[in-house]
Structure formats: C-alpha cells, structure tokens
Amino acid sequence: MFLPRFLALFLASIGRSAIGLLRGAGRLTLFALETVSHLFRPPWYPVEIGQQLLRIGYFSLPVVGLTALFTGGALALQIYAGGARFNAETVVPSIVAIGIVRELGPVLGGLMVAGRVSSSIAAEIGTMRVTEQIDALTTLSTNPMKYLVLPRVLAATLTMPLLVAISDVVGVFGGFLVGVERLGFNPAAYIRNTVDFLEPSDIISSLVKAAVFGFVLALMGCFHGYHSGRGAQGVGQATTNAVVSASILILAANYLLTEAFF
Hints:
Layout: H1 2-37, H2 46-57, H3 61-83, H4 92-130, H5 133-139, H6 144-182, H7 187-197, H8 200-226, H9 231-261
C-alpha cells in the first residue's frame, strides 16, 4: 500500500514540475513575441534606446576586453603545452584564432555581459514593479513593454556583435602577445598563420551568435524583472533567476548555433 502511494506522489511531483516548466516556457515565448512586435509599431523612444546602447555596450567594454585578453593568453599557453607532446607547437596561432572567434569570444563575452547586464536590468525593472512605477506608466498611457523592455532588448542585440568583434580581436591579440613574448614565435609568422586559418564563416558565426546572445540576456533580465515578486526578496530572486537562466540559454543557444553553422 505504501509503495503505490509513494509512486503516485513521485509521479505527481514530476508532473507538476513538467507543467511548471512548460508554463514558464510559454510565458517567456509570449513575452518575447510581444517584445518583437513592438519593434514595428510606433511610438519609439530613441533617447531611451541611446541610453541603453551606452549602458549595455560602452560600459561593458572593459570587462569583455579583459576577459578576452587573459583568455587568449591562457589558451595559447595550454595549446602550446598540449601541442608540445606531439611536436605540433606550430598550431598555436591557428587554434587560438579559431577557438577565440568561433567559441570563446562570443560565449565568454555573452556570459560576462549577462552577469553584468541581465542582473542590472532585472533589478531595475523589478524595483519599478515593486514600487508600482510600471503601473504608473500604464496609468500615463505609456506601454511598459515598449518603453522599458524593447529599448533594452534592442540595445543588447545591436551592441553584442560589436562587443564580441572587439573581444575576438583582443583575445587573438592576447594569444599573440603570449606566443611572441613568452613562447618565442616569430611575429610575422604568427600573424600569417592566424589570418590564413580564419575563414569568413568563422567571423559571421561569431557575430550571429553575439546577436542571439544579446537578445537572450536582455530578454531574460526584462522577463524576470517584469514578473518580479513583491519586496526586496522578490527583486533579489528575479535578479538571480535572470543571470542563471540567461547563462543556461546562452550555452544552449551556442550549441544549437554551432550545430547549424559547422
């Protein structure tokens, strides 16, 4: 008697979790579709969009650049150490360039910006929800989705490819510095090997990934902030959920896009 009851409770808990997951996915999909739909309907808020371009793009440059620089240097050291076991040290420039441009540049850039921007967006919009500022916007006949969500999602989608392009350059440069100064590579030969092994498809895939990651990280920040619970605890939970969900979706989207491109 105990075993069937325990099995029923176990299956019920799985069912509740599955239904909750599907409900959350449905809410997120509808939220994303509504956000995109406002892109084609006036009014637009260019001042708000410009402010978000500055906050999300320009102010994220230091953290993205430093991450790429040290990642490129560490990657060069690791590839050299591994290649030395097979007398293949000459592959360092090409592998560093491909690894940074295809994967590490967009993924690490997206994760770092998600940690900085998704949390900030969720905290800001969540606080506005708690203090009823979003309700005040509705009272003033201003659509919160158009005024709060769309500028942030649009700004992140536009600026992430630029950030990742800079990240790719800085990451390859970090590998170049370590390769030349630490590992003794000839500078001209290093640059030639880097340019020869990079293809246009590598660069295009990196920029497409960046745009998708920008959309995802801003959307998750807006979604969790917009549906934040009441009080400081609700805002804190929304901030945590925004960063975690954005990071997971970035990694999942990276795999799917890698499958599609390569």
